[in-house]
Design a protein that fits this description.
36% of the residues lie in helices and 26% in strands. The protein has 352 residues and is of the alpha+beta class. Helix 2 packs antiparallel against helix 7.
């Protein structure tokens, strides 16, 4: 379990994932050396990682929440294979280990690429190859359903509340107050193709220094700093914190697939986004048009949430709960070093 300083540091990173240790230390009332040591320990022992991610809409991406059913002997290998791909995130084993749930990132734009045969195909179709070709040809998969994520009410830039309850209002103000390190005024920008190297580096480590990012992009450190400021100012880039929810006492996790009438979907989703038990709420396509992830202490706590809080919302017509047995990949499309080592150790018979 985490102590008070661990929780405070994680909350600080939720507020500003790239805040210097000196600034975090000022808010927490400890030395920068203490913050640095604690951050390194949490990275090693708790899998803590800050990752920089583009806003999918501004980056021309569509996100699909895919449910795959496979034979028990193949599901884990298939899940590992999906997790190794650069176009997936949030890969989970659910439902007794026979179901895999993953977010697949595809292109939304309609540019065209010439194939080897001289024909052209849309870039969006090329980016959908995992959905259209690879998964259907995987013999281990016995059922597939794909749900396009239409709108996220909780998740992404907005984090799970129970992981950000450690700092008081004054401490949060210190971290949120802008620091004028230069006279440069950010100009809001959208993510472009020229940002690919920068985004890849930030997906590996959102706290990478300007010098390291300059080496990855071929830009100068000043250019890197300005581009980061511009993308953040426009909401095109945000920073997420990956950490095991079990360290906060959430040992029972479940995906909730709900059906709500369209006229009442917005109100129900907004209500659910205010529930402390939920870390993710999104509207989707498909027979179930609302999905959420619940993080609870134990099965009894989940039962209480489902019967008392969700049960009081009469607009929810149907509800399917699917327990999450294992998280193989979190928010970033790039695996952490620890997760990559774990996947290398596992056999990979699934073809994706």
């Amino acid at each position: 379990m985490l102590d008070d300083l661990d929780r405070a540091l994680i909350h600080a990173l939720h507020i500003d994932g790239r805040a210097p240790f000196s600034r975090i230390a000022a808010a927490l009332g400890v030395s920068p050396q203490t913050v640095s040591r604690r951050y390194r320990r949490l990275r090693t022992e708790a899998g803590l990682r800050v990752v920089g991610l583009p806003d999918p809409h501004q980056a021309g991406q569509t996100q699909w929440l895919v449910r795959l059913t496979a034979a028990a002997r193949s599901a884990q290998d298939l899940a590992h294979a999906l997790a190794r791909r650069p176009d997936t995130s949030w890969v989970k084993l659910t439902a007794g280990g026979t179901e895999i749930v993953a977010v697949i990132h595809t292109r939304t734009d309609t540019g065209h690429t010439r194939t080897d045969t001289g024909h052209t195909r849309s870039d969006a179709a090329a980016g959908n190859s995992l959905l259209l070709h690879d998964i259907p040809r995987t013999s281990a998969v016995t059922a597939v359903s794909a749900h396009c994520l239409l709108h996220t009410y909780l998740g992404g830039p907005s984090n799970w509340r129970r992981s950000s309850e450690a700092l008081d209002t004054e401490q949060q103000h210190v971290l949120r107050s802008p620091v004028a390190e230069t006279s440069y005024v950010p100009v809001p920008r959208r993510v472009g193709e020229g940002d690919a190297a920068l985004l890849l580096a930030l997906q590996k480590d959102g706290r990478a220094g300007h010098g390291e990012l300059a080496g990855a992009t071929g830009w100068s450190p000043v250019t890197v700093a300005r581009r980061l400021a511009d993308l953040r100012a426009g909401g095109a880039l945000f920073f997420d914190v990956e950490v095991d929810a079990g360290l906060f006492g959430a040992n029972t996790r479940a995906l909730l697939w709900m059906s709500v009438s369209p006229a009442r979907l917005e109100r129900v989703a907004t209500t659910l986004a205010g529930h402390d038990e939920l870390a993710f709420v999104a509207a989707t396509t498909g027979p179930t048009n609302l999905v959420a992830q619940a993080l609870c202490r134990d099965p009894a706590d989940l039962h209480h949430y489902l019967t008392r809080r969700l049960g009081s919302l009469g607009a929810i017509r149907t509800l399917e709960s699917s327990p999450v047995l294992r998280n193989l990949k979190a928010a970033s499309p790039v695996l952490s070093d620890q997760a990559r080592a774990g996947h290398r150790a596992a056999p990979a018979r699934g073809r994706t």
